[in-house]
Design brief:
single chain, mainly alpha, Rossmann fold, 13 helices, globular
């Protein structure tokens, strides 16, 4: 039996994986596998909270699975949320341990509601309002010790802990151990076209670099990257240049990073050299990822069966939790 601490993290299936996703979260997933028992979910229930089409949802779900495996996530650590329906059942139970006021204060809801209102004729689903409770169920159903978090996710961890505490108090037992945020080093990657905003697919094609892009496209995007905009205070590194250095370091090109940073400090840095180094770093990574993805897709039938099997195995933990949660709460159980 694995005695390591358990880590739970999840990602929505929203299409292409870009370097903002990879350096900001997924690379961390790969690294954590060496030190923790990891459970990683592709959360397609969450993807329904914003406007979606059924055909695209299933395509994106498998595409993300293939992408995660291609960049180094182990298939045995992966599950697809809809293959573990206990998430939804625990979410309903947790709805009864979470107040309307708590949910109404969640800042990400306000941002996503604005996006949804703009793109779907003003329709904002109740699921979008309630998704932090489903997120709490995602975490607590596996009794996770740690959840990797970014700066904007502290609210969600606190809500999860509050729900766990309220449940424990109601049933008179410390059933749920409170999960903690795992604050590992995360890289915040900005758009190379507008370095004042995060790299994102929603902003348009020029604002993100696909992890699986061909070399020519990556080089073109980096060559056209914004460097100075003319409004940077004297003595400060411009956001565009800083972003390129961030990408270079994240790509593991530390000798080039150190040398070019020395040139920057002495005032002799040529942007063309910086961009060339960044492009080569990303191209090198993408070539590895594309090769692994080609191998994965060539065996996609077997890969799908493997991930279905890992989902079924991971589901056993969820079934055990939901059985105990219902029993403690006075709810009748079904037999699995």
């Amino acid at each position: 039996m694995d005695q390591r601490k358990r880590v739970l993290s999840a990602i929505q299936p929203t299409g292409d994986m870009h370097y903002g996703n990879y350096f900001g979260a997924v690379k961390n997933w790969v690294d954590l596998q060496e030190h923790y028992e990891c459970v990683y979910g592709v959360v397609n229930y969450h993807a329904m909270t914003m406007p979606f089409t059924p055909k695209k949802l299933v395509e994106n779900t498998w595409e993300l699975i293939f992408n995660l495996i291609a960049v180094g996530v182990k298939p045995d650590n992966l599950f697809i949320q809809s293959l573990v329906p206990e998430h939804a059942e625990l979410c309903w139970i947790f709805n009864c341990f979470c107040s309307y006021g708590q949910l109404s204060r969640m800042t990400q809801f306000k941002d996503k509601a604005r996006q949804s209102e703009e793109s779907s004729e003003g329709f904002i689903s109740a699921g979008l309002f309630d998704y932090p409770v489903l997120q709490a169920a995602d975490i607590l159903i596996y009794r996770a010790d740690y959840v990797p978090v970014g700066d904007d996710q502290d609210q969600h961890i606190e809500l999860t802990r509050d729900i766990a505490l309220r449940y424990n108090a109601q049933v008179g037992k410390t059933y749920f151990v409170l999960p903690e945020g795992l604050y590992t080093e995360a890289t915040r990657v900005m758009s190379t076209a507008d370095p004042t905003r995060k790299m994102s697919k929603s902003a348009g094609e020029k604002h993100y670099i696909n992890v699986f892009s061909d070399p020519d496209r990556i080089r073109k995007q980096i060559r056209s990257a914004v460097t100075d905009t003319g409004d940077t205070p004297s003595g400060e590194m411009s956001p565009g240049v800083s972003n390129l250095f961030t990408l270079l370091r994240a790509a593991g090109r530390l000798p080039e990073y150190d040398a070019l940073m020395d040139h920057y400090v002495t005032g002799s840095l040529k942007y063309v050299d910086l961009k060339e180094a960044v492009a080569e770093g990303l191209v090198s990574l993408s070539e590895q990822f594309r090769a692994r993805k080609a191998e994965t897709v060539a065996n996609k039938k077997d890969v799908k069966e493997q991930v279905k099997a890992s989902s079924a195995h991971i589901r056993q933990r969820a079934q055990e939790t939901i059985r105990e949660v219902k029993e403690l709460a006075g709810l009748l159980n079904v037999k699995f």
